[in-house]
Amino acid sequence: MSLACASVSAVTPPDRLADRPATGADAAPRPRGRRRALVRLAVATVFVAVAAAVLAGQWRQAGPLLGRLSAPAVLAAWAMVLAGIYATFRSWRAALAALGGSLPHAGAMRVFYLGQLGKYLPGTIWPAVTQMRLGRDYRVPPRASGAAFVVFMLMLIGTGLLVGVPVIPLLGGDAVDEYRWLALVLPVAALALAPPVLNRAIALALRVTGRPPMPAPLSAGAVLRVAGWAVVSWLCYGVHAWLLARRLGVEGGALLWLQCTGGFAAAFVSGPLLLVVPAGAGVREAAVVLLLGSTVTAPVAAVIAVVSRLLFVAGDLAWSAVAVVAARGLLRPPGPPPRP
């Protein structure tokens, strides 16, 4: 009987997602050729160079303004940015796990954070393409990585609208006049994030592209986990804007934090709406100035916008470096067997 079962299991094709080991030595990436490694190194170099160029450009603008901020205040704001970026990673990882692509923590960090460097290139497709490519190193099918990225981005935008739209009336008449259209987008986003709609959209996309279906649909609990981590990221980003505003002389407690959180979330989600703008550059800054200008004054809002961009770029580079170091053990080829 055991021999027959072994024979059946040997000829039965396993599911591509379930077939992939998730932890331990089996989670190490498949061997790569020298040419492929050189190509990936070149792509990673381009991503880092573009991000560094954005960082240098923002530094030239923010340098004179940083004199108004103390080093502890900037570091505290940056700590909240780092926490928010980590929360977005957890949101993406929850989406990937719900779609059958769980990864070890270090490998997931490598796929997500290095893929996120692609957002500094024109167009929003590069993070998805990079994550799908890196995910193959850990036997994650591209359809799982691509679907996880779409779910993650929709959830990030949807929760940003959920956090930002109710606060817009508290930001002044100019904010209401310029961003009232976000109130029309919010119901559409909420409908798109419902599990039945998401599952049907993913199934349709896979069927049109000729890809196998997912082994299991997204559950309501999985969607809530993805959304929960996304909301945590917006709360962290609101604290970072509040810390900068307070250090720049703006008075206010809980109400100011609420305004900073909602205004920054609404400004942040404006970036992904323009596909040709790298990482929403310029769009977010202009939106922050307009949305928070009536609350904290336009000059203070401009300082927050520029310094915030600087902190986000530095945060992306820092987390990418951490991911590379953390994943070195997975990427290192296996050594010779231990000698007896």
Structure description:
The chain has helices spanning 2-11, 34-62, 71-98, 105-116, 125-136, 142-164, 173-179, 182-192, 195-208, 220-247, 254-268, 283-296, 298-326, 328-331. Helix 3 runs antiparallel to helix 10 (220-247) and helix 6 (142-164) packs across helix 10 (220-247). Helices cover 69% and strands 0% of the residues. The model is unreliable at 1-33, 275-280 and 331-340 (pLDDT under 50). It is an all-alpha fold and 340 residues long. The two termini are 37 Å apart.
Short key terms for the protein model shown above:
340 residues, mainly alpha, disordered N terminus, disordered C terminus
Provide mean pLDDT, rounded.
Answer: 76
Strand content: under 5%
Low-confidence stretches: 1-33, 275-280, 331-340
Helix-strand category: mainly alpha
Note the run of SSEs as H and E. Answer: HHHHHHHHHHHHHH
Total beta strands:
0
Number of domains: 1
User: What is the rounded Rg?
Assistant: 22 Å
Layout of secondary structure:
Elements: H1 2-11, H2 34-62, H3 71-98, H4 105-116, H5 125-136, H6 142-164, H7 173-179, H8 182-192, H9 195-208, H10 220-247, H11 254-268, H12 283-296, H13 298-326, H14 328-331
